[in-house]
Amino acid sequence: MSEKTTFNSLKISENLIKKLEENQITEPTAVQAQAIPVIAEGKSLLFQSETGTGKTYAYVLPLLTKIESEDNPQKNIKLMVVAPTFELASQIKTQIKNISEIKTTLLIGGAPIKRQVENLKEKPAVIIGTPARLLELFNLKKLKLENLDAVVLDEVDRLIAPELRDFTMALLNSPKKHVQLIAASATITKPTQKLLAGTKIKSDGSLEHEVETLFLPPEDVLRKRITHLAIFSERRDKIDTLRKVILAEKPSKCLVFTGKLDQVENIVSKLNFKGIECFGLHAKTDKVARKSMIDRFRSGKIKILITSDLASRGLDIPEISHIIQMDMPSNEDFFVHRAGRTARAGKTGINIVIGDEYEMNQFARLEKKLGLKVYPKMLFKGKLVSPSELEKKGE
């Protein structure tokens, strides 16, 4: 019988293990058990694991352990974590702060660059940020990466999408010495794998990476821990249908997605008018307001948050009981990431799609492709019921 894997057996520092226990984290997840030894050896790694499986700590724990072991870890920037959105970057910083006192600085677009320059003068060992702002600070010679040991690309598929790719690749070419490259996501495409496998991060112009890959078998969160419901609604009636669904389900914490940015405020306005308190979050929301809203949603002070797909990737907000999708995204990865905001850390959750005839057909095709079990539901006397239940009642 094989010995049980523990954070101690993975050689995570005692300081970090103690902090993990204070946060009720006592055992490594599957991805942590497999990724930590590879990263601890200093190897470059591209790994894929489902949402909610603990990817952030899979790379943070071995890298922080290494920084802690150095004589003067606070003297130079040792770790740079790159994230596609302000929300994810902020969340990663919070997760590090929860377990470590290593000085960490957040460098994101939309925030005062002057303040960030001042923060860099405090000599953080870890920097976390969005690619455009990180590159801007580097080009201004305010960000010094000559002592960098590792670069992490979190949600790597987003980081090398067309709108961010140039910034990301320029950052990868910024260090003048060999650095360890770690890239992670819930979904990694073959082009991403091919691109990073060929990435060269040089020390003397001749050294290049050999990036190992780790693709964990799915825990089948999408099928085993999430209940999928389909509710038909004509497009013009969707917001009222949403209102009735919320009243019927009484979710403890609900995240509502719409693919149309301009619909976020419209939905918020109409629900608030009908007496349902909710708040909206999208790409044009002020950065300070976005952070405040997510913090309040995470703490439970906000129970219903309406958002564009901005918030669908990477965010780890506990105890979301319901996801409601007001449309079917054109990209199936967005569907997976939306649904994956619930049923995290071993919990269960409900994913509801409110769609018209075309979207219900799309959902049916996706049901078959992903091997889901989707339950059609109807609203009847303030409750969600299946069509077969109504037939039995003769309604």
From TrEMBL:
GO MF entries: ATP binding; hydrolase activity; RNA helicase activity; RNA strand annealing activity
PROSITE patterns xref list: HELICASE_ATP_BIND_1 (PS51192), HELICASE_CTER (PS51194), Q_MOTIF (PS51195)
Motif Q motif, chain ranges: 5-33
GO annotations of cellular component type: cytosol; ribosome
Helicase C-terminal domain segment(s): 241-386
Stretches assigned to the DEAD-box RNA helicase Q domain: 5-33
Keywords of the record: ATP-binding, Helicase, Hydrolase, Nucleotide-binding
Domain annotation Helicase ATP-binding: ranges: 36-206
Pfam families, sorted: DEAD, Helicase_C
Keyword Protein biosynthesis tagged: no
Official protein name in the record: Superfamily II DNA and RNA helicase
